[in-house]
Every structure is written in C-alpha cells, then in structure tokens.
C-alpha cells in the first residue's frame, strides 16, 4: 500500500508537469483538433490549466409562477446592468454528450464529467480515449431529456496521496427505496489506479443512498469545503410544487408539501455536510431518516459535531435546507458557500449559504411568496427564511432565463474586469453569461449584468456548468442540445476579450 501511494503521488504530480510541458509544441489543425489527436471526446487544446498561461439540470416547470415579473422587476431586484463586460472563450475540449462538471484538482489535469456516466481525463496527451471512470453500468438509462445520470465529482483534498474521489450518480432503485419511487441517489467513493490515469471500478464504496421519488430535481453537486468536510446538494425529490408521492408534509399550510422545509423525515431539498475521513458516530442514513444496515464495521462517514441539527430535532447530516434543485455550488476565496437554486415558474436565485440557514422553498421562490399573497418570514423554529443575494426573473428583464447554473466568485488574473465578481449563467445561455458584484452598502441584492462571450467556436447555446483551476481561472461546459444526446458537448476556457 505504501509503495502504491508513493507511485500514485509521483504519477499524479508528473501528469500535471507533462501537460504544462506539452503546450509549447501543441499545434492546432484547421478542424479545431490538435495535430495527430484521435481521442474521443475530442481534445481541441491541451495546454495547461494554470502554468501561466441532463441536458437541462433543471426541471424548471412553467406551470404556476409565484409572481409574474414585469419589465421593472429587473431594476427592483438588482438585475440592471452596472458595467459593460465581455470575455473570450477558447474551446479546449469537445465531443462530449452532456458535460455537467469539470474538476481540476491539479495544474495540468482536467476531469470532465459526462452525464452519460463517464469521467474523462485531459492531460498532456489530450483527452484520453478510455474513460478515467465509467459508471454507466450502475446507473439508470439516460437518454433524451433527463436530469438523471452521473451528476457530481469531488476529489479528496489529499487525492495526490490517497487517490480517493467521490461521485454522485442515479442508480436503479436499491433496497430501502420505496415502491413507486423513481430511483436511488448514490454517493460513492472510488480510488484511482497507481498511475493516476484511470480509476479502479471495483474500489467503489457506497457512502450514502437516498430514495428519489421522481426523476427530476436531482441536484448532484458534491465538493469539499475549506473545513475538509464533504458537502452534498440534494433536490426536493422532483415533480412540481414540492408535492406528490415522496413529498412529506411540513409546517407551512398555505402550500402543500414539502421536502424543502422538512428536516426530520428525509435528506431532500438540502445541503448536507459529512466527514468522510472519520469513523461514524452512528450507522449511516439511507436518506429516508432510517438507519441503514452495513455489512462492515467500518462506517462510511461521520457527522461533524458542529452541524446545526446535532442534538436537535432533525437529521444530523443537514447543513442548510429550503432548496428546490440546487444546481451547482462553489466556495469563494474567503470560504463563503454560493448555492444556485433552480426556480419553478418565475424566479431563479443564488444564495450565500450558512450553517442552519433556511432558504425558503416551497414557502418562497427566490424572495417572493410562492403561490400565496402573503407568507411568513421565519419558520416555527424561529429561523428566518433567508433571501438570495442574486435573483432574476423568467422574463421581463435583460438578465432572465429559466434555470440558473451556479458558477464561481472569480479571483484569477486573466480577466481583470471580472475579479471579485460572481460569474454564473442560465441553462438557456444563448451565447452569454451573467456577472454579479457584491454591493458596497447594506443592499441585500447583488447588482447583476450580462457578459457577452466572444469565441471562434460555437459557444453553447446551453450552459451546463463551470469549472475552476488551481489558479482561479474559469472554464464553462456547454452543449448545443437540449437533451442527453449527440456529441456537441464542449469545454471552454474563459479569457480576456
């Protein structure tokens, strides 16, 4: 084991060096691919990440909006333009089906997550033809319009030493998932092979399983926080309104449901926080509030003692709740947690999330009462319903869309105009991005504006996710399809325009 870890660490370190060294001689052919590259998905630029240089994830129903935005709503909610911003977009990889994630744990090694079940490594040799990991044989079938699939990837902070990483995927219903449910949410740990170019598919260890009532609102993002704990986003279970089969009753009577406000019956509609490096203080949850049986004495995770519901009425894994479909989250340079939550029929939102925070769904959609003229501003526990820092409507504003795609607070050097701005998008991006800046005063809402994108290749028109390299530079994953099909998925590196 010691020799394997030393070999793995050396391989992982050398892999990043190889990509950085390879860039000087990389030629690009007229068709956008590197000279001599035959990999698929196609590599179109294998230069370094930082050497100095579901289909829709949404389920954004349009059936019953909570409030109908007007032309003036953009200014009132802080979405009026504050400056003229533009960026360049250089395509660095293509040929994917639905690239819903990009993780760059080391300089020179990009890992592209394809919703169809594969993780592809891009290094100095381009995009490897053989996937780094393929879990498609463990997933539900994914095709057409789907919010299921391989939805999240997080590398352990000590990946270079231990080779551990974590994935989130949609599996056929497993033991403990009630009849009539759609599938099972699975969070698993894997280990990379010693050479660092592939993972051992037999190394899977299931960390968490959550029964999913419907096929949509799966969220899926997983990431390690600056505290070393693993954060996991879960949707409200699917369907519309947070109602129906698998959606429990909560404290709010004006609107039926739902899982977003419940913290005692299941782990849906929440941000979870678990410790994957310590022995469990209790048997792991199966996601429904019951404890799961484990064949091994080694429990897969522990609960941090300072999680907000430890010792209170509620499931200990909960860190924050009141979410509908949190599609992508990230930690800023100062450690703040930014969570984008896809709305239903009227409002999209991004919140700065704190421990024990209740972010409103399905009492509110954004900062607006959902399907009610009036609504409370706190829960029976006395916890306030937190407003988002960013929200935009489904129409009537320059900044508008149907499904928010969470991004990053930019702290790189390549694009001076974006430094300190939160860059994000809508799924229906139509060739542009959005940027928000933190207000100087006491304003709750961050002013937000559009960002035009200049590229020699087709950019989107759909945006699926963002990625960030160790130097703080940003990447965007796009597709030309509204379904999980084809090979139009691509990864772009953002540059100055």
Please render the helix and strand layout as text:
Layout (H helix, E strand, L loop, with lengths): L1 H21 L50 H4 L8 E12 L2 E8 L2 E6 L3 E6 L2 E2 L5 E2 L15 E6 L3 H4 L1 E8 L11 E10 L6 E14 L9 E3 L5 E5 L35 E5 L43 E4 L4 E6 L5 E5 L5 E7 L10 E2 L2 E2 L20 E4 L10 E6 L12 E5 L5 E5 L11 E7 L7 E7 L5 E6 L9 E8 L1
Parallel strand pairs: 1-24
Antiparallel strand pairs: 1-27, 2-3, 3-4, 4-5, 4-6, 7-8, 8-9, 9-10, 11-12, 12-13, 13-14, 15-16, 16-17, 17-20, 18-19, 21-22, 22-23, 23-24, 25-26, 26-27
Care to describe what's here?
The chain is mainly β and 497 residues long. The protein has one domain (2-496): Neuraminidase, CATH 2.120.10. It has helices at residues 2-22, 73-76, 159-162; strands at residues 85-96, 99-106, 109-114, 118-123, 126-127, 133-134, 150-155, 164-171, 183-192, 199-212, 222-224, 230-234, 270-274, 318-321, 326-331, 337-341, 347-353, 364-365, 368-369, 390-393, 404-409, 422-426, 432-436, 448-454, 462-468, 474-479, 489-496. The strands form 6 sheets. An 8-stranded mixed beta sheet has the order 21-22-23-24-1-27-26-25, with no helix packed on it. Strands 2, 3, 4, 5 and 6 form a 5-stranded antiparallel beta sheet that branches. Strands 7-8-9-10 form a 4-stranded antiparallel beta sheet. Strand 25 and strand 26 (474-479) form a beta hairpin. Mean pLDDT is 85; it is low at 1-40, 45-80 and 291-295.
Quick structural overview:
With 497 residues, the chain is mostly beta strands. 6% of the residues lie in helices and 32% in strands.
